[in-house]
Amino acid sequence: MTTKLPYCHVDAFADRPFAGNQAAVMPLDTWLEDEVLLAIAEENNFAETAFVVTDASGEADWELRWFTPSEEVRLCGHATLASGHVLLSRDGGDRVSFRTRKAGVLEVARAGEGYELALPLIRTAPDGWPEAAALLGAEPQEIWLSPDRYGIYLFAGEDEVRALDPDLRGLRALGNDQFICTAPGAQTDVVSRVFVPGGGVDEDSFTGSAHAALTYFWTERLGRDSFTAFQASQRGGHAICRRDGDKAILSGRCVTVVEGSFFLR
């Protein structure tokens, strides 16, 4: 017996195809077994596949889960933005909410030609991790860490961040951490690159959750509540980041590049 599942391939935090970060979005009638969700995500082979099911609890519009090709994750920004884009484009309306298992209720709202994504603000504090710093390919000026395994590594300028050639195998051995390398940008206020080899993503194209940490870090540093950001991956991705109380508001656009069906046998 063959089951046909809806499938969308979206480039998030991008204003054109082949930029930003790729996500698969798959609205389901009911939840499949976890091993099946993971197998689908492995087959898609994107940084994230987002699965949504109508939220029976009434707490939000949809229940949302995210899977890399190797595991379920606790928070993913770009695939949430992509999910909001798919559902708002399909169903209409100005905003959509998602209940998640570990990140609370998240919301995507229309904003101009794109969307605003509200994520929990991720606070970091000055710390040290010499084992990680030694693997990044250059010595950071500062290291800020959070208990949730988000690490910010500050460098002097954009050229230094772009030139990083980290030891990915060594970083992978340290665990499922985000290694967020950042500096003041040349064309934007902030530039970053994000490495998550322990989570199956050597270098991410655009990382929404990392920008929830960068929003706290850079608004504290810049002394203002918003800034422009560019993630300098091979594909590249843009956002405007704004701090609103305990939320990080990320503004960006999405492009649907494939719509079709996933055949499950």
Question: Could you please describe the fold and organization of this structure?
Answer:
21% of the residues lie in helices and 43% in strands. It is an alpha+beta fold and 265 residues long. The chain has an 18-stranded mixed sheet that branches. Strand 3 (48-54) and strand 4 form a beta hairpin. It is globular. The termini are close together.
Task: Offer a concise description of the structure.
This protein has helices spanning 34-44, 77-91, 130-133, 158-162, 168-173, 208-222; strands at 3-12, 21-28, 48-54, 62-67, 72-73, 95-99, 105-111, 114-120, 125-127, 142-145, 150-154, 178-184, 190-196, 201-204, 226-231, 237-244, 247-252, 254-264. By secondary structure, the protein is an alpha+beta fold.
* First-residue to last-residue Cα separation: 6 Å
Instruction: Report the structural category.
Output: alpha+beta
What letter string, H or E per element, gives the SSE order? EEHEEEHEEEEHEEHHEEEHEEEE
* Proportion in helices: 10-25%
Strand content: 35-45%
* Average pLDDT metric: 96
Largest sheet: 18 strands, mixed
Number of helices: 6
Broad shape: globular
| Low-pLDDT ranges | none
Please count the beta strands (DSSP E, at least 2 residues each).
18
Radius of gyration from the alpha-carbon trace, in angstroms:
18 Å
